[in-house]
Write a structure and sequence with these properties.
The chain has helices at 8-35, 53-58, 64-96, 102-110, 117-128, 137-161, 165-173, 178-207, 210-215, 223-232, 238-270. It has 280 residues and is an all-alpha fold. It has 11 helices and no strands. The N and C termini lie far apart (58 Å).
Length: 280
């Protein structure tokens, strides 16, 4: 079939459509960022006067916001560790092993991505409540791991499948042990994937609401739970500053993942991650 050459009007139409879509998608983010610097106490857009008072109130030492940010950071860090352990282990088995019922195991591992989060949160509540772990950062981190680990597993499976297994076979034929192969070949080549999995696990936990709402207590409220409580009965403009910080955190995380994957790909092409010394 002969393709018609693109016309000038077609180029302009596609450019206008793409610009309109991008502006529509970015509009809520822009509104939140601008409103977070408003000086009034009701969070209007556009603000009449500008100030950093809501950021100062959010970061006030000993305040509810600072305490919730610290708690969310702790839970996200624990979730990242747990998710990486599960992600690397499960991805290695699924990508390199010969598991029986491979398709069923694969579907079971990724099932939490398809099940509504409120259902998972209710199940975790019924599990942790009898053992008295409600409000425990460890319990919330384990709950978040249920959601974050499938993301880590998918990233690590993609990473492991991208590693040329002939490198490991060549090292084994030269007498390198499994530990040496993992330390000198597999893990260096998988580093960009590990960092990406860690970043997405951290963000998944830091932004999660339903599980934290079911498992938290008045003394252990994560940042999304505190945001929800602040908006449920009143309008607290500090929420706009918190939202702006979350947006900045997500943008930084995506930039970090893109940078690491770019550097990793460049080093792989240059052979920088490949061992240059005897493996044995």
């Amino acid at each position: 079939m002969m393709e018609l050459p693109p016309t000038r009007a077609g180029h302009i139409g596609r450019a206008l459509s793409a610009t309109a879509i991008l502006l529509f998608l970015a509009m809520p983010i822009v509104i939140i960022l601008v409103t977070s610097f408003g000086a009034d106490g009701i969070g209007t857009f556009p603000p009449k006067d500008y100030s950093t008072r809501w950021y100062e109130q959010m970061a006030a030492p000993g305040g509810n916001w600072a305490t919730s940010i610290a708690l969310s950071s702790l839970i996200a860090a624990l979730t990242t560790v747990f998710s990486l352990i599960l992600g690397v282990t499960a991805a290695t088995a699924l990508a390199r092993g010969r598991l029986p019922l491979h398709a069923a195991v694969y579907g079971l591992v990724l099932a939490p991505m398809l099940i509504p989060q409120v259902v998972i949160a209710l199940g975790l509540f019924l599990f942790f409540e009898p053992v008295g772990m409600l409000g425990s950062p460890l319990a919330i981190a384990l709950g978040h791991t249920v959601l974050a680990s499938p993301v880590a597993i998918l990233i690590m499976i993609s990473t492991l499948k991208g590693i040329d297994e002939r490198l490991e076979d060549a090292a084994a034929s030269m007498g390198a042990s499994r530990m040496t192969i993992a330390r000198r070949i597999t893990f260096p080549l998988a580093t960009p994937g590990l960092i990406a999995a860690a970043v997405f696990s951290f963000i998944t936990s830091f932004d999660e609401f339903f599980i934290a709402q079911f498992l938290s207590t008045p003394d252990t409220r994560t940042l999304p739970v505190l945001v929800y409580n602040a908006l449920q009965f009143d309008v607290d403009p500090t929420v706009t500053a918190v939202s702006a910080v979350l947006i900045a955190l997500a943008i930084l995380a995506l930039a970090l993942v893109a940078l690491v994957r770019k550097l990793g790909g460049h080093r792989n092409q240059q052979g920088g991650l490949l061992p240059t010394e005897p493996l044995a």
